[in-house]
Amino acid sequence: MMKRTPCDIVLVIDVSGSMDEQAPVPHEPGETVEDNGLSVLDLTKHAAKTILETLDGNDRLGIVSFSMQAKVVQPLTTMTRAAKRATSKRIEEMKSEDATNLWAGILSGIKLFEDVNDDLKGNMPALMVLTDGMPNHMCPAQGYVPKLRSMGKLPATIHTFGFGYQLRSGLLKSIAEVGGGNYSFIPDAGMIGTVFIHAVANLQSTFANNTTLTLTYPASLGLEETTGESVEQQPPILLPSPDQTMQLTLPLSTLQYGQSRDIYLRFTTPPTETLPPPNITASLTYHLFNPTPHHTTTTTLSPPLPPATTAFHTSRSLLLAFLSTVCPLRPLDLEHIHVPLITDTSAFLASFPAAAFPADPACLALTQDLAGQVSLALASPDYYHRWGKHFLPSLGGAHARQVCNSFKDPGPMVYGGSGGVFERCRGDLDRAFDGLAAPVPSRKRKGKGVGKGGHGKVVMSAYNRSSNPCFAGCGRVEVEGGGLVRIGRLRRGVQVVTPRGVRRVVAVLRTVVRREGMCLVGGAVVTPWHPVRVEGEWVFPVDVKRREVRYTGAVYSVLLERDEDADAHAICVDGVWGVTLGHGRTGADGRVGDVRTHGFLGDYDRVVKSLGVLHRSRNFRKDWQRRVRCHFDQAGKKASRRVARRAKAAAVAPRPVDKLRPVVRCPTIKYNRRTRLGRGFSLAELKAAGIPKQYAPTIGISVDPRRANLSEEGLAANVERLKAYKARLILFPKKSNKPKKTDTPKDQQSAETTQSTRAAFQLVDNIAAGFREIKKSELPKSTGSYKALRKARSDGKLVGVREKRAKDKADAEAAAKK
């Protein structure tokens, strides 16, 4: 298995005053936002700890915070275990301050790479800048892009992350392009986890950096780039040669394992059919994270691509060109000029080449991007100016560089490769983000239902998720035979009713929610975007709800047995048909208008694979928020207990660590022959040994005044135990010059000590004296062993009764004779 790429990461974190604003839990439109006390900086620090959690001794991490000035929180440090603990503490100590000096933060981060020795060859260097506002202090006079270009070759790629809606997204995108990195838009707290996870996973799956592709071709061909507008775009140049040769340089920055970089070019002057095809030479230069460049050159023409692949790359170039027109790069003094919006994308979608190949997953995902979030961002000026102008450049950058930047958008999800280094790194980061302890809220909560002194429990998976498609636990499901069973009581193998007959339950997924916004449809309580069938049509509950409700408890999703018929993947809950997981509607069949269509939840194989990584209970029920790790042989805990015992023994020395306890027998017939330590000595035992009951606890003897002696043997054994203890007991005087009468004389005091009375006065061996096994030959032949034992037991129980009866009979006969 291929190992991930070690990284040198410097986090440049904005700690200006605005970072202390509320970071609301992700919510659906129209849903009331609940303040859980977490700030933007709280979640940023949590994301930084997620990155820290996945680093090891081959990685280095540096941290820079900036507000009015930049501060180096930590230089580039190798992430040993001790260093990770110290780094986590430094991250937690960061506090919000005042202004936003972005340039100082970037400059300090770059200097961290220049100040270290190059002892770790082969590490991927990256500078990650996160800010939530516009730089307003000490901006470079000549501009960020010219200033960065004047610094020459940068020691690391620069990745920018913009949080919120008050951004200069064009500036952040330009900085990332000059630095050879990506720009990511984080609209709310719900995206912070997924964006950071994908950004680091892309770094850890990088093969090479500082990559450029140089094309040499005849001037008559007229090649043009199609990846949209970019500050790093370079025009073709005419080489000083007699044959009129042109050269086009394309900066590619980084290459990832498992993901190709496909360059789609357009030529303006088609070659004459009578002439041979022109010669195009492609030269690729790249660096394996060191100053030594590597070169490869080819003039071989690739074979024709399949029509769907050609349509995908053609559509990708058209989408990038379209996004460049709606979000053009402009100087600062022209940013206030609004570009006329193209609010209707239907004409562009109708001519979109990828739309003709709905069965191809890549073409379908690209079409979903255009028909979904892109169209929504341009649907109204309010949407565009609030979030569209920040989101569209981020989406365009992901398609231009062919990187997956979040779980949210279907288009970029086709990048990264399947089952490779990227997916493995992303899975590790995803589990680390959800598994880390929730950050302590730094803000005082406001709103209804907030207690005086505390914050509610924060589940970090809420900041790295989509909506939960589930039914409330109070719903009743129709099962075979017409009965109703609570959905929470479903088990694997239960036969439930579907529109296509009876089907078997394969898995039940249980998720705990708190104050989740849900919809009441008919008699069922369901999450807003879980498709239900009403009057023969599949719709979203949010569109047909009777009213909204707040639900706290467990919600459930069900996976039924595999069936090609999508209608066989539905259950009837409180009279309402609801879709189940893995129903088969993924969009690959080209169907449109079916609300059940979902690339992941409709894919049976992907759902089963994802459920398989969760904790499996006896009945294949899943609970992804209550996974428990059981460590039955804890070496660390053993050592801790051993050290604690030694510390306690040293603290109470020369006294033993425990008190003397009596030997008792178990109070059952079966185990009466076994001995164990009792709670304390009885008063009768103390009296027989000559030890006052008030004096006994002061010399290390436990006392239980409630205990009574039921046998002479037990009394005698414990009296001997007490006498043996007294014989070995040494009492040192509190004041050496004033010994008491009960203290041990100085000439009899010994340096020998005992740490444990249990070890010194061990249990008496189990004695079998007085018991003898009855042999079969001794039993009467007329009766069996069972009858003989039963009679012996009965005789023993009734001996007193029979004696009383005989006495009463004798007394009655004596009285009759008188």
Automatic annotation (TrEMBL):
Residues 8-200 form the VWFA domain. Residues 747-758 have a biased composition (Polar residues). GO terms for biological process: translation. GO terms for molecular function: RNA binding; structural constituent of ribosome. Keywords: Ribonucleoprotein, Ribosomal protein. The keyword Ribosomal protein applies. GO terms for cellular component: cytosolic large ribosomal subunit. Residues 733-758, 792-818 are annotated as: Disordered. HAMAP family: Ribosomal_eL13. Belongs to the eukaryotic ribosomal protein eL13 family. This is 60S ribosomal protein L13. It comes from Schizothecium vesticola.
